[in-house]
Amino acid sequence: MSRRDTAWLTVGLVWVLAAPLGCSHLLETRSVTRFTGAFEDRDIAALREATTPEFRRRALRDKSAVEAMELLGFPAGEMTVTEVEETSADRRRVKVEFESAGGVKTPLTLELSRDGSSSGWLVDDLLLKQTRRGATVTRSATELMDLLLSVHEFQQAWHSGDRKRLLGSTTDGLSKKLAQMPPPYLAQLATRVAVRDGRTFKSRPRASLDGDTAQVRYNGPEGETVLALKSGPTGWRVDDIVFSSGSAKRQPESVRLLAGVIAHAAGFLDAYKQADRDQLKAHASSVFYSNCLARADLDQVKLPTSAAIDATAEVRLQKTFSDIVIKQPDRLVRLSLEREPASDPGDTSLRGFRVAEVTLVDFGSSQERRLSAVFTAHARMRLFLAAVRQHDLAALRHNSSTDFNNRVWKQLAPGLVPEILGLAFSHETAQVSGTVFQGAITEITITQGERVLTCVLREQNGVLLVDDILVPTTSLPGSLKQQFERLVPVLAFRQAIVSGNAQSAARHSSSDFNRLVWSQAVGNFPAQAGHAARFLVPAVSRMRAIEGDREEVILGDLQFGARVVLVTESGRFRVDDIELFSGEAAPERPTMLKQTLRLEIARPRNRRSAALRNPAAAVPSGPTAR
Q: What is d(CA 251, CA 248) in angstroms, rounded to the nearest whole number?
């Protein structure tokens, strides 16, 4: 039996529930009951009859409005009117309670406006309480419904395949960027955004409203997707779309940023085909254009047009770089883009992406042809040095070979990046002094102030990547890869004992060190380990191989420093022991940290407490002097 079938019963029920308020508010109560009954029946026509023109225009303009209202958490159960407030001659604020079968009462406030034609009352708004960031806030149902229906209209536009409707559902800024995308790629992007079958509210959109901006999260074809919206004269429009990361290996992907990257890549390809130097300059990085494209004979190498950036194209988007791979029957064409630096050092704004290199990989010959072979090596080196300057570990890994990554960058914690890079690189501008090509290997010698470095790049899977940096030295290995490979466990070990983290120290220690010390130090971190950390601060002065597979790293000198003994286990260097130098008289036998910590852990607790009360005495006794 529907609400309309029980109209007279409803009137009687309203009389009983409203009795405590008196007869004067019977019409208002009846209007509220008519509205809630229409919602229970999911009757959009009845809802429109029970609401004001403004509510109908903003909150009930589409037949899917009932589905949207269900998302707002509209209470259910037996309704009781608890208060009617006359806010003006033509306005009423009605407070009601819904009691569930379990006896839980949920309050709700409705705003009523007098119907000019019938002198009755119509629902003009609902005030809903929502929890946001731990705080309860009151939201207008009209505003929330307007936002949710705008999202539905956006979804319908992106699902329609109509390019004009799609662009019209976004802000002018985003629409301009999307319009520059090749139609095939925009069509493919729409399939990643639009929910299947156009069922907007089946994707469970969750709205967060803040003035004239809003965020709406929904379950899209690729997982959680976030819409950033702005309110303007024409209503809500989407200003960005973000595909959330599905795993730790994937970065959130902004469509606004993606559109900018695709637009520059498409503009570059079309300008290249038309030999339009001005447009090439606009879409290429300044270095790539000035060193290669400005004077190049563009007819020597054919590139595809922007139409080739279609559904098969692969885009790898990161914070400071991007790659676009175009698949063709006989080859791959890869466009590498990077952010342009600001000419003004004080400009901290994010600059746009520009094409920095183009690479062609022929399937038949398995050879890689660069648009400018000589500058491919230079471009990669510049990306690597930019990552060094910015301490960007992700970019260092992206621009380095597998061997360099496995031996150094993948073992390096982000917090140690500035320190280890500062040992070899300066902030001065790099000047190229010579380039030597040796087949798959290219060596570029640069100077940074008084420092001379040789960047060794090695071809790997058709890509030229930084494999090592060579430096002139007499007391250390001439390879930074070898130096860093030995320093990473030393610095990580020091960081672990400073923070008192036995588990972290164990990861960088040998199996023997772990067996004798760290496996026994659970809940009882040895105090002398923390005091020994300062001896590992001085700069490295020597590295050399000693007996067997052991090597030593000398930090500082005999007056103050340490000798760290490393062993190779599971393909990595690990700290096996440490001898401390303090310039004091040498004992008959050098004091080694591993044995000292082992004895401390074995001592009674009262001795350890005494050591903590006297930090000077906690330094391992008798640091070696020679």
A: 7
Closest CA to 471 of 495, 455, 489, 449: 455
Inter-residue long-range contacts of 158-161, CB under 8 Å, 24+ positions, other chains counted: 158/190, 158/193, 158/194, 159/190, 159/194, 159/195, 159/198, 161/187, 161/190
Predicted confidence band of residue 190 (pLDDT cuts 50, 70, 90): very high
Mean pLDDT for the chain overall: 84
Please count the residues of the chain.
626
The answer to whether 96 touches 80, Cβ cutoff 8 Å, is: yes
pLDDT band at 166 (very low <50, low <70, confident <90, very high): very high
Identity (one letter) of the amino acid at 499? Answer: S
Q: What local confidence, expressed as pLDDT, does residue 347 receive?
A: 47
Q: Tokens at residue 495, please?
A: 């960081």
Cα–Cα distance between 455 and 1 in angstroms, integer?
A: 82
Q: Vertex 122, ends 116 and 126: CA angle to 5°?
A: 140
**Percent of the chain with pLDDT strictly greater than 70:** 86
Q: Read off the pLDDT of each residue in 436-451 and give the average, rounded to a whole number.
A: 81
| pLDDT for 12 | 35
SS (H, E, C) 548-564: CCEEEEEEECCCCEEEE
Where residue 472 falls (left for φ over 0; alpha for ψ -120 to 50; beta otherwise) is beta
Buried b (16+ CB within 10 A) or exposed e, 411-447: bbeeebbeebbeeebeeeebeeeeeeeeeeebbbebe
Report how far residue 579's alpha carbon sits from residue 269's, in angstroms, rounded to the nearest whole number.
61
Condensed to tens digits (0 to 9), the pLDDT of residues 37-70 reads 888 888 999 999 999 999 999 999 988 888 888 8
How far apart (Å, rounded) are the C-alpha atoms in residues 155 and 360?
A: 38
**Inter-residue contact 209 to 144 (CB < 8 Å):** yes
Which are the contacts of 380, defined by CB distance < 8 A and separation ≥ 6? 399, 457, 464, 465, 466
CB-based contact 193:158 (threshold 8 Å): yes
Provide φ and ψ at 239, rounded to 5°.
-105, -20
Neighbour count for residue 136 (Cβ, 10 Å) = 8
Q: pTM for the whole thing?
A: 0.57
Contact partners, residue 454, CB within 8 Å, separation at least 6: 443, 444, 445, 446, 469, 470, 471
pLDDT per position as a tens digit, 315-336: 988 878 899 999 999 999 999 9
Over residues 300-320, mean pLDDT: 88
